[in-house]
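Limitations
The structure tokens in this dataset are predictions for the assembled complex, not deposited experimental models. Users should treat interface geometry with appropriate caution, especially where small molecules or nucleic acid strands are included. An illustrative entry is reproduced here so readers can see what is and is not provided.
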Amino acid sequence: MILEVAILDVKQNEEKKFEMEFFKAQKIIMNINGYISHQLQRCIERPNRYILLVNWETLESHTIDFRLSDEYNEWRKLLHHFYDPFPEVDHYKTIYSNV
Amino acid sequence: MILEVAILDVKQNEEKKFEMEFFKAQKIIMNINGYISHQLQRCIERPNRYILLVNWETLESHTIDFRLSDEYNEWRKLLHHFYDPFPEVDHYKTIYSNV
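Predicted assembly:
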């Protein structure tokens, strides 16, 4: 299992709109092969910052099955215009977990 | 519930030592009042980067019950010398979750 981590800085005053569009967009990733689970969380210290955490079966579930899909274009159209700067996305593997 | 997020950049070639010390240190947070769960994950793209995710009952479980405790000094001694730069730590609240 791979964890995708994206810190999302949303343009000021667009937070509510972003949350509404994300509510729609999340259905897109939930239908991708290899998707396991996800969370969108909002930062307390910087309220225009969010973190998106997505668990995928493999790295390629995200980088190929999702990013090279037609659905990714929909995702981009719904969400990418909210970000400033455009986020870096990294992938992580568990070392220790007590959940 | 509050999610603590820390992106940890560990000095080059100290990754294995860090993981061993973290294995000990994690017992410290697990005994703090308000601790719920945690994960340490390692970045695939930047192998000296880790993400620490800790779920706490409240923001104060982390900022007061943990950070003002004697146990925090132990945690600092075990781990803080590994980081360069010293990490920023943010706290998040769930907007959407499908886990």
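Some entries come with short summary sentences. For this one: Chain A has a mean pLDDT of 97.
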